[in-house]
């Protein structure tokens, strides 16, 4: 059966106290609405219709994609009114309603819900709550058959004792929706067109309301303020951490791990505390990541070791290679197998060949460094003249003395050596020592100044 999805995202979110529209606030580095859209996509609907209102332009700009249809609700007159704005675009046999501020809804739950929908039946996602205050209540008859949803503010004291709450998420037969929405009225406590009133209409029309339960409260929690936003964040991270542990990753403390993107992991990976993974990260078997590392859009090959406080972005660390503590690998950094990068070394657009080493305090930018080459402490590639960038090429088994400045463009052949403190401005042939520094003078009998 064909499917249209409507995502309600027009509300203001006053309690966020923010210039940013509520649905753009991030959970795990991605906007809440972005999460909902990605989940919606997995259901392969014929259309995804996003109802926007507050901050509409910004929302549209940030999330624009070919498969999304944005619908403007210029005045927020209620959830029923919001869905009605999308109505002219809907043509599928089933319509699923989601919320831009309910980001943790899982695709499996929605699939279960959608199985309930037919010409004669709709599917309603409910949740049992310890404290249902604020939620619409699911009203059932003596046989447990759903009759209606009553909003908290409209509910009698007796109805408020009902612990089964409306998540807001429902799936209905598309052919009926227009008729029901057309009959909504706003004569209720809030003066809004409630989407929830379609439940009683469906019952009156002889349809069955089949309910499905959300896994837990967090799955269907909407963020109304930054406290709830942080709860969603922690719950997301708790789920992510569990998933990784199930896949064979040791997390020293799952409460101090953050995933802001996607990661694929091998076996026997160990991740110490306060590690943040961002974007697309690939971690192969046996990798060890020390505490306080940020790793973004990077690939860590088998057995690589990332020591404490390292920052990697757009980098690849080869098999058995290691970096840190306090290493910074910027985009285009490529460490070959068993290469070594030590503390306070920054790489940008630089390749270290197999077994090459840069142990301490260096900047290596726009560089190609051959296998087994050793970069002494304090070495700098001078790759920028203020206008243009130039390349440094070092062959294999090169030895760069400490505190060398390699003024690019410059090329050093295999087995070349530079003396410590050299400023290397010209190419050095293979097997040659280059010394580019003032010759030492010793002044015999020199007297230190003394106080008068
Ligand atoms: C709604 C449900 C309630 C349910 C609760 C779950 C209704 C009438 N009530 O109540 O039964 O228990 O969600 O959280 O549906 N929105 C628009 N345009 C509007 C109004 C709302 O896009 O004109 C969007 C909001 O941005 C929000 C969502 O719809 O994402 C829910 O609206 P809200 O006003 O928060 O509904 P609740 O009172 O929480
Ligand atoms: Ca709400």
Description:
The longest helix has 21 residues, at 226-246. The chain is α/β, with parallel strands linked by helices and 452 residues long. Helix 2 (56-63) links the parallel strand 4 and strand 5. It has an eight-stranded parallel barrel. A seven-stranded mixed sheet has the order 5-4-1-6-10-7-11, with helices on both faces. It contains seven helices and 35 strands. It folds into two domains: 3-220, Spore Coat Polysaccharide Biosynthesis Protein SpsA, Chain A (Alpha-Beta Complex), CATH 3.90.550; 250-434, UDP N-Acetylglucosamine Acyltransferase, domain 1 (3 Solenoid), CATH 2.160.10. The model has no long low-confidence stretch (mean pLDDT 97). The radius of gyration is 31 Å and the shape is elongated. Residues 8-11, 51, 73, 76-79, 81-82, 99-101, 135-136, 149, 151, 165-168, 194-196, 222 line the site of uridine-diphosphate-N-acetylglucosamine (UD1).
Can you lay out the helices and strands and say which pair or pack?
Blueprint: E1 3-9, E2 26-27, E3 30-31, H1 32-42, E4 47-52, H2 56-63, E5 68-72, H3 79-86, E6 94-99, H4 107-114, E7 121-128, E8 137-140, E9 146-150, E10 164-173, H5 174-182, H6 198-204, E11 208-213, H7 226-246, E12 249-251, E13 257-265, E14 269-271, E15 275-283, E16 288-289, E17 294-296, E18 299-300, E19 305-306, E20 311-313, E21 315-317, E22 322-323, E23 327-329, E24 333-335, E25 340-352, E26 357-369, E27 374-375, E28 380-382, E29 392-394, E30 399-400, E31 405-407, E32 410-412, E33 417-418, E34 423-424, E35 433-434
Parallel strand pairs: 1-4, 1-6, 4-5, 7-11, 12-14, 13-15, 14-16, 15-17, 15-18, 16-19, 17-20, 18-21, 19-22, 20-23, 21-24, 22-25, 23-25, 24-25, 25-26, 26-27, 26-29, 27-30, 28-31, 29-32, 30-33, 31-34, 33-35
Antiparallel strand pairs: 2-3, 6-10, 7-10, 8-9
Bound molecules: uridine-diphosphate-N-acetylglucosamine and calcium ion.
């Amino acid at each position: 059966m064909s499917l249209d999805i409507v995502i309600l995202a027009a509300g203001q979110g006053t309690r966020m106290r923010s210039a940013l529209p509520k649905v753009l606030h991030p959970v795990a580095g991605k906007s809440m609405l972005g999460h909902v859209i990605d989940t919606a996509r997995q259901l392969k609907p014929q259309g995804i219709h996003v109802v926007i209102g507050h901050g509409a332009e910004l929302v549209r700009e940030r999330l624009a994609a070919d498969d999304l249809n944005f619908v403007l609700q210029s005045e927020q007159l209620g959830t029923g009114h919001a869905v009605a704005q999308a109505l002219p675009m809907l043509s599928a046999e089933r319509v699923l309603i989601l919320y831009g501020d309910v980001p943790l809804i899982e695709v499996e739950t929605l699939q279960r819900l959608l199985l309930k929908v037919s010409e004669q039946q709709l599917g309603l996602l409910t949740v049992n709550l310890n404290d249902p205050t604020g939620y619409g209540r699911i009203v059932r008859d003596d046989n447990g058959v759903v009759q209606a949803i009553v909003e908290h503010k409209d509910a009698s004291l007796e109805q408020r004792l009902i612990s089964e709450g409306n998540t807001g998420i429902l799936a209905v037969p598309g052919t009926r929706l227009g008729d029901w929405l057309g009959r909504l009225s706003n004569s209720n406590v809030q003066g809004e067109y409630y989407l929830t009133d379609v439940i009683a209409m469906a019952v009156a029309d002889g349809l069955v309301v089949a309910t499905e339960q959300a896994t837990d409260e967090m799955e269907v929690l909407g963020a109304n303020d930054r406290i709830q936003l942080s709860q969603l964040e922690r719950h997301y991270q708790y789920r992510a951490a569990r998933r990784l542990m199930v896949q064979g990753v040791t997390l020293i403390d799952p409460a101090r791990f953050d995933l802001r993107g996607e990661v694929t992991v091998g076996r026997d990976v160990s991740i110490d505390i306060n590690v943040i993974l961002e974007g697309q990260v690939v971690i192969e078997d046996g990798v060890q990541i020390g505490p306080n590392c940020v790793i973004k859009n990077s690939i860590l090959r088998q057995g690589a070791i990332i020591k404490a406080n390292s920052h990697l972005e757009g980098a690849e660390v080869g098999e058995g290679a290691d970096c840190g503590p306090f290493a910074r690998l910027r985009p285009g950094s490529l460490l070959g197998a068993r290469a070594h990068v030590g503390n306070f070394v920054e790489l940008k657009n630089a390749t270290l060949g197999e077994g090459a080493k840069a142990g301490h305090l260096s900047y290596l930018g726009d560089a190609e460094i051959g296998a087994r080459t050793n970069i002494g402490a304090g070495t700098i590639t001078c790759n920028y003249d203020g206008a243009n960038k130039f390349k440094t090429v070092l062959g294999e088994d090169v030895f760069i003395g400490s505190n060398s400045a390699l003024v690019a463009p410059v090329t050093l052949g295999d087995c070349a050596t530079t003396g410590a403190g050299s400023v290397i401005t010209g190419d050095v042939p293979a097997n040659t020592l280059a010394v580019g520094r003032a010759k030492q003078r010793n002044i015999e009998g020199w007297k230190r100044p003394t106080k008068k």
